[in-house]
Structures are given as C-alpha cells and as structure tokens.
Amino acid sequence: MKKIRCAIYTRKSSEEGLEQEFNSLDAQREACASYVASQKHEGWVLLPTHYDDGGLSGGTLERPALKQILKDIGAGLVDQIIVYKIDRLTRSLADFSKIVDVLDAAKASFVSVTQSFNTATSMGRLTLNMLLSFAQFEREVTAERIRDKIAASKRKGLWMGGNVPLGYEANGRTLKINEPEAKRIRRLYELYEQQQSVRAVKEDADRICLRTKKRTRKSGEVSGGGAFDRGHIHHILTNPIYAGRIRHKTKVFEGQHPAIIAPDRWDAIQEQLKEGATKNRQKRTSKQSSLLCGKLFDQTGDRLTPSHSKTRAGTRLRYYVSHRLIKRSGEQNLDGWRLPAKEFETKVTQVAKDTLLNPSFYATILVGLNATERERCRTKLKDYTEKGAREKLELVERINLAPGNLKTKLSIVHIANLLERSADELNPEHLTIRTPFQLRKRGVETKIIIADAPTGIDEALIQNIAKANQWYGLVKQGQTFKIIAQSQNTSSDRIQKMIGLAFLAPDLLRQVMQGKQPLGFTSDWCMRHAIPSDWNAQRVLFATL
C-alpha cells in the first residue's frame, strides 16, 4: 500500500488567546490528527512538522507556514494537506486557484476534516469553489462593516487607533494631551507663523534641537527621536487633529479630544500654506516655461521642440530637441540637436544683452537721428538690459543653429516699440547677430560653448601628438604596434587609438599648439574616438566638439 504523507496546516486570524496553554491552533491540530489516524487503513501517515500561522489573515498568501508547506509540497516531501476547515487555508478564490496549481503540479491533494470532500475529485473541487465563494463573500462583508464602523466612529469624533500623533497620548477611544510633546507642536506652529516657509521652519527646528516622537514597539525596537524633515513638518502643520478635529479620507469632523492649536489659528495657517504653495507653483511654472518655443531652428530648417525629463529625485530638466528626434524616435543613426534649455536660454540672453549694450548696434540700426535722439535710444536700450531673461528673449524673432554658428535675428517690431520709433526708421540688415560657438557632447545632450578666450594649451595632448608622429615613423620603418609597444613601454591598444593624431590637418594642429582647440578635444577623447584621416572630416568633427 502506498503511503500518503499528510501535513496539518492551522491558522487563526487574531492573536487573541494564542498565549493560552491549549489554544485554537492546538484544537485544530488535534481534530486533524484524529482524522488522519482514522484513515490509517488508506495508508495515511502524519508528518511531525507543524505548520501554524497564528494571528494572520486568510485573505493573503503572505503567511510563513503556508509558504513553507507549499515549498515542501513542491519538493515532494508532502502528499496531502489536512485542514480543519477550508477557510483556514484561504478565503480567496484567486489564492485558492494558485494553491491548487501547486498541488496539481506535485500530484498532491487537500482535505478538509469538517467538510467531507477533497480536491482529488471533480465534485470535491466544485463544492470547494462554492464554499470558498461564500468565505470570500463573508470576508468582504466583514471588511465593509469594519470600514463603516470606522467611518461612523470618526463622524462622532472618536480616535480609531494607529500611531499616536506627536503631542498626544491614547486615552481609550480618544486622545489626551502630552504636555512636553505639545510644546514641540506649538513651537513648530509659532516658527511657521514667523517664517512663512516650511524650509525655514526645518532650519530653525534643527537649530533649537526639536526632535520627533520616540516610539517603542512590542518587540522592544525603538524608533524616532531624530530631527524633523520637511515632509514631517508639513504633515504636522496640515494635520487637523491638532485643531481638535478628526480626518476621515477627504472629510474632517469635530473630535472629542482637546486641541493643541486653536481652530481659528489653525485655519489661518492653512490659508497661509495654500498661498505659499500657489506662489511657489507659479514661480516654478514661470521659471520652467520654454521662452524660445517656436523660435529655434537647426541647419536643416527643422524646429527645436521643448521637451523635458525627470531625475530620480523628481527634478524637471528642460530641453530643446530637434522635432525629427521626437517624431521619429527609435530610428537608428538619426542626427539632431538636444540642448539643455535653461543653459541655452542664458547664453542667448547674454548675446542679446551684449548686442544691446554695443555702441555700434544702435549706431547702425538707427537711421537719420541726431545725437540727442541717439543718446535717448541708447539709454532705453541700456535700461532694457537690466530686465529679466523673459523680456530680453521677447526681442528674439528667430534663431538658426548650425555647427559652429548661432544666428540670432531680433524682431524689428519689438525693437521699434522699445525705442518708441517707427519700424521704417530702423535698419533691418543689422538686426541679425552671428555668434561662433563650440560644441561639447555629453551623452545625447549637446552643450554650446560661447567663448572668445582660448581653451588653453594642453601639454598632455601636445606630447601625445609628438608620440603619435614618432610611432608613425616607426611604422613606416616596418615595426608592428606590438613591437613599438614593447619598446615604448605602452600598449598596442593605446598606439592604435592615438596614432591618428599624426594625421591632423595643419590648421587644426596649429590650433592645438596655440591652445585654441575645441574644449572637448583632449587626450581622453582621442582614446575613445577614432580621428578620420580626411582633413575636411576632421574640421567638421572639430566643429562639434
């Protein structure tokens, strides 16, 4: 006769009574053991391992003993699960189907002692599904009753448990003030009324060493007692419990506990918090608006579209991206521009400012004005340069980008309005500003460098150019990279990557010797990129570094 190894599984939802010498788990196990003994003639054998989950709900599979017994079934150590009632195993139809899948895969079964069926037969599974449907229904109805009870209690102003907030102690179904902690709460509210900023309250709280509530768990573990963070301070300032009220979801009711902060005062602080949040939101929105939207085009005539991404910390990063990169995203080897918006706007703003302050600008755009009128226009332009970036960029009508060249066209209408002149009096030929620049690539992002000052002489780069010419001479003599590497105490890989420096175009070599090479052209860059032998290709490459 084949032996059927039986494992008893017991469960109880609450911890109440588990401390007793003979508790509910023991009663379930005793009944199951007796049933297994009565089936000895069928070859049933009881395994000694206990699988007990005390104080755990049947609405989830996250139970240590249940996980262990399913693991043992999968390992072939158990042939049959024995339970007192099916709802001891699970109260969820979805979870039950997962358990049955495990049992089927291991060719194991499940037996309920007080309900005469098992999962080895189709009738047993049908009956079990019906019983589980009622068990799940009962569980959901019970959960609804509990939610309704909590809502009704909170409408009456009762505190329904959970972590006791700082400043209070539990007192049955209400709260009483803990005076030492309440002083901290009052101090935080006073600081906010003085500073009108949660950030400033955080700084002051750290300075005067205000600390959070220290809590001791049942396990003896101690938490809290540290410095307040901004989120915690904001939660305290917006928690209606300190005004003697109880919050339930989106509604707030009058509580039966005493207030630490007078309700009128608390309401006034909420208005201040809302006003501060609105100002910050408007400030962020104005700062993050794309001021060059619709004005920026690349060398192909494609418009650069505002875009953004977010860092892991939630910071919003703005960009101007060639429209084709967005429209045809996913295509390989698609070239285009991706400029950091804030940085690029700053550079264009500086170009506009420098232009307005240049004496030759207003001298050339104004036609037929006497010295007094010109001086008045110069003053207006100078005053306008003191305005913010938004106002300066309003003067920009269009920007054309090409490698190494930024062409900014100012609006003749805006300039005329600024100077309080007619557009016919202005010379449009001098409203386009051409600015040379260098590019530096950082991943997919392109950084524009506008600077007249030389990059600086790179001694390491010059030495590597000299070495590259020396290595090329040895190659012409018939030596291999390996032989050169051994004699020069370097690696073949380094020689292979750096020897391209021996073929630099004369004008580019002259730039390096004078310290006027692109910012991105360094020895490290040469180790990561191949230098084309064609001089024109080198010049195009230099323009993008």
Broad shape: extended
Number of strands: 20
Helix-and-strand structural type: alpha/beta
Distance between the termini: 82 Å
Multimerization state: single chain
Q: Extract low-pLDDT stretches.
A: none
Beta-strand share of residues: 15-25%
Percent of residues in helices comes to 40-55%
Q: What's the number of helices?
A: 21
Q: How does the major sheet shape up?
A: 5 strands, parallel
Q: Radius of gyration over alpha carbons?
A: 39 Å
Domain count: the total is: 4
Mean pLDDT: 82
Question: Which helices and strands appear, and what pairs or packs with what?
Answer:
Elements: E1 4-12, H1 24-38, E2 44-46, E3 51-54, H2 64-74, E4 80-83, H3 86-89, H4 93-105, E5 109-112, H5 122-155, E6 168-171, E7 174-177, H6 179-195, H7 198-207, E8 215-216, E9 222-223, H8 230-238, E10 245-248, E11 251-254, H9 263-288, E12 296-297, E13 304-310, E14 316-322, H10 323-327, E15 338-340, H11 341-357, H12 359-365, H13 371-384, H14 389-394, E16 396-402, E17 405-410, H15 412-419, E18 432-436, E19 438-442, E20 445-449, H16 459-476, H17 481-488, H18 492-498, H19 506-514, H20 523-528, H21 535-543
Parallel strand pairs: 1-2, 1-3, 1-4, 4-5, 12-16
Antiparallel strand pairs: 6-7, 8-9, 10-11, 13-14, 14-15, 16-17, 17-18, 19-20
Helix pairs in contact: 6-7, 17-18
